[in-house]
Design brief:
single chain, alpha+beta, Topoisomerase I, Chain A, domain 4, Gyrase A, domain 2, four-stranded antiparallel sheet, two-stranded antiparallel sheet, 5 helices, 61% helix
Length: 186
């Protein structure tokens, strides 16, 4: 019964790595700005820190502008301060109780740098998945050494885990390519 258990260990690790990767790349700037760029910024308000998306609605007005509409009008200055401190490459403009963020057009250098960051995040995700696979392989190896798993079952389980990680890598490459095209789009 250790092979399904090893697969379960790998799947948990894979899901965690892919979820982390999606969160990380959501914050990468592409040709069109998305609310995800600012939604996770931590805002200090009334003595506690909260993510921006918990204090305001965040939406696009066009391809380069994000509009932040605080639900509590007294939070406007705290949100503007948090956005400034987050150093996301834009200064907030307070327009009454709303905050407007107008991002500059991406230069070719910035696009190339963003693509490098994308590939670095992808590699970190791959490393996390390989660590999960290695942990699952350790379980199989321990079972083999204890005599509860045959040599054939061990190598069959190892091959199965390698096939699983191969399938995930193909899906990850597709996601990387899609995000890279999004970044390159002007």
């Amino acid at each position: 019964m250790p092979i399904p258990q090893a697969e379960q260990i790998f799947n948990a690790s894979k899901d965690e790595a892919l979820e982390w990767f999606e969160k990380e790349i959501a914050g990468l700037r592409s040709g069109r700005v998305k609310p995800a760029l600012v939604e996770t910024i931590q805002v200090e308000l009334y003595g506690s820190r909260s993510p921006l998306k918990g204090l305001a609605s965040v939406s696009n007005t066009d391809a380069r502008t994000i509009l932040v509409s605080p639900w509590d009008k007294n939070a406007t200055s705290a949100i503007a301060k948090a956005i400034t401190e987050a150093n996301i490459g834009v200064m907030p403009t307070v327009d009454g109780s709303n905050i407007r963020l107008t991002f500059p057009q991406l230069t070719e250098d910035v696009r190339n740098q963003t693509i490098k960051v994308l590939h670095a995040k992808a590699e970190e995700s791959r490393i996390r998945m390989r660590q999960g696979r290695d942990e699952a392989l350790r379980l199989l190896k321990n079972e083999k050494e204890e005599g509860t798993l045959s040599e054939d079952d061990f190598y069959g389980g190892k091959k199965h885990l390698d096939e699983l990680i191969g399938k995930v890598q193909v899906g990850l490459e597709g996601r990387i390519t899609a995000k890279e095209q999004d970044i390159k789009t002007i």
